[in-house]
Known about the structure:
The protein is globular, with a radius of gyration of 19 Å. The chain is of the alpha+beta class. The protein contains 9 helices and 16 strands. Strands 5, 6, 7, 8, 9, 10, 13, 14, 15 and 16 form a 10-stranded antiparallel β-sheet that branches. β15 and β16 form a beta hairpin.
Amino acid sequence: MRVMLIVNPFATATSAAGRDALAHTLGARFHVDVEHTTHRGHAGELAARAATVGYDAVLVHGGDGSVNEAVNGLLPSPAAIDDTPSGTRSRLPAIGVIPGGSANVFARALGINGDPLQATSQVAALLESGTTQRIGLGHTDDRWFLFNAGMGVDAVVVHAMEDKRHAGKAATPGRYVRTTIATFLRNSTDPAIFTVEVPDRAPITGVRFGFVSNLSPWTYLGSREIRTNPTTGFDSRLGVFAATSMSVLRTLPLAARLLAQRDPRARHLYRDDDVAHVRFVADEPLDVQMDGDYIGERREMIFGHRAAVLDVVAPPL
């Protein structure tokens, strides 16, 4: 079996010794080519080459952003794949994840061990047994997303965390919480709003922040799952979570329900765990994030879903 191992050496939870150990473990069982990323988008370039050359699997050792890049390099664009029946598409390598980031949302949702060395042994055993799962993905802006994309203050938080990481500060759960609270308070009076449109209902206007999920949980806070759309999953369509207020008095009870892992409900919240497509539209460009990476500002985002589009190395989901 021929495997490409894509390593992000700058990921939060990686080390040179750890990377050598997992490469050695995989190399004892497969023919492994190790590729280190050197720039933004490089994981996608490498995965695209793996698909062309004919690798059996692409393993990514890095954070969610690196996995997102690899998936977008591996698969045709959403616009192209929507016109190609799944039965006629050429066989692509399965993708596996060895966690190396701070949150590792996608890997954890797939049931992959959080420890990189244990995850390596787990993924290797799954590969040897031929155990893969076919999952659906969300898409927007002609890109695939694995677990969520958001507009508004959610993306502002992601942007702020990226700035902190670039300044050399670790992306710890505590720093994420502090950044989230500070960002909410700083933007609570910001007049920026947008409209959310979903099938078969009136538009939701005056939305202050919203996100679209491909799975649950939405993210993790340490070991705690944060489930904004509890029944959204790999076997459903998209989850929508849109809030029309950033009032502290209204947001705190909702945050408490999320932290307590209770069904998220509030009068200022619109939620649906299974919709076919969603549109966000704003009068002015707003910050947008995808799979925890800041991708810039947009006035409009149209979200769709494609079932059974990606083979992943994972235990039964």
